[in-house]
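Sample intake — GST N-terminal domain-containing protein
Collected from: Aegilops tauschii subsp. strangulata
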Amino acid sequence: QGLQDKIKVVAIDLADRPAWYKEKVYPENKVPALEHNNQVKGESLDLVKYIDSNFDGPALLPDDSAKKQFAEELLAFSDGFNSAFFSCLRSKGDVSDEAAAAVDKIEAALGKFSDGPFFLGQFSLVDMAYVPFIERFQIFYSGIKKDDLAKGRPNLHKFIEEVNKVDAYTQTKLDPQFLLDQMKEKFGIA
């Protein structure tokens, strides 16, 4: 939405959240949160929908009804995708069948529309919902499971390549080694 220059980003340590965050910003103590017009909003998907509805800029969902319906299906699957990811993080062996199936579903979804490399063809709210988790899953696959998440998945490979050209994403992207170290520490992986 072109808000990078209009918002103030406040980074906090997720492992040691400051007391002021819960007290003054978001009582649920979850991230991210957005304060706008003296109201605080939370939950990532809700925030993106709120931004799409309340700020000028390109629409984050297309007008096409088939794409809107598919977007809702993909957003509904996001919890299942994340669950498979975290289940895989906790497992000591190879990549689980559940995680592989979830990534294969993403590969198929990325191939549904031919008008671009993203879930709905062009960059959308759905991509915003998935990219942080795909990024972390890719780092995890490579750094811990010694596997390539995009291997044999050309749509996912192209998605990762193209999303890394989106300024709004690259400006907020964290260092991959930092993310890997953080995951290893959180899940007790040597």
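Post-analysis note: The radius of gyration is 17 Å.
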